[in-house]
Amino acid sequence: MADYYETLGVDRNASDDEIKKAYRKLSRKYHPDIAGPEFEDKFKEVNNAYDVLSNPDKRRMYDSGVDPNNPNSGAGGFSGGFGDMGDVFSTFFGSAFGGGSQGPVPRTQPGRDALASASIDLKTAVFGGTAHVKINTFSLCQECGGSGAQGGAQPVTCPDCHGQGFMQKVVRTMLGQMMTSAPCERCEGHGTIITNPCPSCMGHGRVRATRNVGVTVPAGINDNARLRLANQGEVGEGGGAAGDLYIDVRIRADKQFTRDGDDLHCWIQVPMSWAVLGHTLTIDTFDGPQDVTIPAGCQPEDTVTLKGLGVTNIRNNDERGNLVAHVNVLIPTKLNDSERGLIEQFAASHDADASHVSQASRPQTGQKKSGFFSKLKDALS
Ligand SMILES: [Zn+2]
Ligand SMILES: [Zn+2]
Questions:
Q1: What local confidence, expressed as pLDDT, does residue 112 receive?
Q2: Per-residue DSSP letters for 64-92?
């Protein structure tokens, strides 16, 4: 490895000024135009030495035993034994002196996505609507508009790393002393420092804040659906573009209706006489009160379907499911004497021949059961 200090004729502890002075003198002395073409190599040597010793990073590297302008020259622990020193060199220094992939870390970073949850009632799921969510996340600092600097000041170049964002340092390895780079501590790798940080965000350009967000819920939304609100998430470091906000939507259980896909189900209690004789009654629906007619001879577990009063189809908003009313026939448990007399009279007239009881392994009400009701019954039993 060439001795650059000797080339410039300076001491190893020479100051930047002494190096500069020595270089000026020698570059004039050996300039081919003055000294003649035979001094061209010497002139190149002087320039190369100055290039290394005038750059603090390269000089430190050179002092540690590696020639930054000629890494394959084999200094100290590098001599011999390794097929391609270039590889080793680039492994250790490639990022700093090679491809330039290492540089200052931008102050402005994109924000992360945020996740929140909202709870809506069943009616909002049926027709769509708005859900309100309270989220606590990073928002843009209003004080500095995200710059992080007080009073609109601009960040200044870091004096430690001169804007590089990283510092070279010497580490001991099995190969000898090596140079490696680490993020500059003073500027945290940004290459710039904010001399007067915004007091509101301490220079981060963002502050934690709670805000209310209104979310449009599409008609027909399913329980546990996840909605996405672009750019409503966390604001990034340095006031960087906000991430997205995701909202998990839960549908609260309803007291009157159960949902099954696009259909709604409810259970209505019907006196035995209505089931026998037929009756028109009014029930609540999400579309307001609706008349329901129980046909004469209605059986327990019969259903009455109100078409189009169910949940809006999420893909086709013109379509809606049905509202299915399940009939629960109430058998009277307390009768006064006159009622008992009437029922006995009815039994004598209607059930006089019912001496033989029909028996079967499955319910024989004569009604086919809706899949949903059977499922529910199974779940309850
Ligand atoms: Zn601020
Ligand atoms: Zn720095």
A1: 93
A2: TT--TT-GGG--GGGSSS-S-HHHHHHHH
> CA 210, CA 199: separation in Å to the nearest integer?
19
Ligand nearest to the CA of 161: 2
Do the Cβ atoms of 168 and 60 come closer than 8 Å? yes
Tokens of 379: 């779940």
Q: How much is the pLDDT for 28?
A: 79
Task: List CB contacts of 186: < 8 A, sequence separation 6 or more.
Answer: 158, 159, 160, 161, 193
Q: Residue 185 Cα, ligand 2 centroid: separation in angstroms?
A: 6
For residue 116, what are the β-bridge partners?
Answer: 247
Element (H, E) at 180: strand 176-183
User: Which of 313, 249, 303 shows the shortest CA–CA distance to 275?
Assistant: 303
CA 180 to ligand 2 centroid distance, Å: 16
Q: Please say whether the beta carbons of 239 and 141 come within 8 A.
A: yes
Spans of the chain below 50 pLDDT: 73-101, 367-369, 381
| Residue 66 Cα to ligand 2 middle (Å) | 24
- Ion ligand 1 neighbours (CB, 5 A) are 141, 143-144, 198, 200-201
DSSP assignment of 208-233 equals: EEEEEEEEEEPTTPPTTEEEEETT-S
Using one digit for the tens of pLDDT, what is the confidence trace for 252-301? 999 999 999 999 999 999 999 999 999 999 999 999 999 999 999 999 88
Q: What 8-state DSSP symbol labels residue 113?
A: P
Q: What is the pLDDT of residue 69?
A: 76
Q: What 3-state class would DSSP assign to 241?
A: coil
Three-state DSSP class for residue 355: coil
- CA-to-CA distance for 261 and 348, rounded, in angstroms? 47
